[in-house]
Amino acid sequence: MKTEDIKNICNLGTGTMGFGTALLFAKKGYTVRMFGRSDASIERGFHSIKATLETYKENQLVTEEEIPEILGRIKGCTTIEEAVQNADFVIESIAEDLAIKREVWKKVESLSGPDTIFATNTSGLSPTEIAEALTRKDKFVVAHFWNPPHLVPLVEIVPGKYTSQETVDVTWKLIEKIGKKPVALKREALGFIGNRLQLALLREALYIVESGIATQEAVDTAVKYSIGRRLSTTGPLETADLGGLDIFHNIAAYLYADLCDVKEPSELLKKAMKEGNLGAKTGTGLYDWTPDGLQKIKKTRENILIEWLQKDKIMTF
Questions:
Q1: Residue 110 pairs with which residues in a beta bridge?
Q2: Helices (H) and strands (E) in the chain, counts
Q3: 277/284 Cα distance (integer angstroms)
Q4: CA distance linking residue 151 with residue 131, whole number of Å
Q5: Phi, psi angles (nearest 5°) of residue 141
Q6: What are 188-241's pLDDT values in tens digits?
Q7: Cis bond leading into 182, ω under 30°?
Q8: Cis before residue 148, ω within 30 degrees of 0?
């Protein structure tokens, strides 16, 4: 299988991630069969796609004329049999449950051609463990799109123990072709790259609050107005080089010993879980969320991410 041979995409899932991947492939000219468990889930998926296309249009990321063409490339399917028909590449964004993924992938493989590439959009499960249900393990890979997938460029490509280099290479080129920014891991690791870094930062942020060093508002403000600004153009290793490795070595020499190194979730997270305060989706988490406040921060995030998409067209790093 070569990247140019891929014409038909099977997209498993219509939710937060699934609708986004279906849109991204259709936007770049691919025929997409989008699987949902019911007509209602297909309808929700198309509703999200249409709303995103309107946002794209308002920000000159698509034209009015392109919208019906993009929608016309996506067909909703309520059976895996129909969704997988003639698929060259399958992207899956269903429940983060190992048993469910194995069951679905075993069925997908039985309905697929010998050259079809299988990609899971898991955010952390082991590709080796998921692929245990498959015969053609060499065709299985992680393609982890970041949320929201229609706005965040990164896609982490993660090989399992049996994944062939050809599968990694073809997936990389396909992800580039749909306008995303792929990075490939040399080997699989829990959390891949992004979530390992994100959770390391979250662990220290929670520790700072729990230890009484600063308030949660101060922590978030410090990140947004310092490293948050800088990390969008220079990653942590580039930042170290630019600042001077001698400086960072000296800071690490005295600071590492004082950083949080706990091996289980923080007491703040445990308390919130016990009380059912799960964040924005329940109205309360580390912060209290009003409908207006939630809408405002989501819109601000969307606007900033769109600004970056527009800048990505003219800038390279």
A1: none
A2: 14, 8
A3: 5
A4: 29
A5: -150, 160
A6: 999 999 999 999 999 999 999 999 999 999 999 999 999 999 999 999 999 999
A7: no
A8: yes
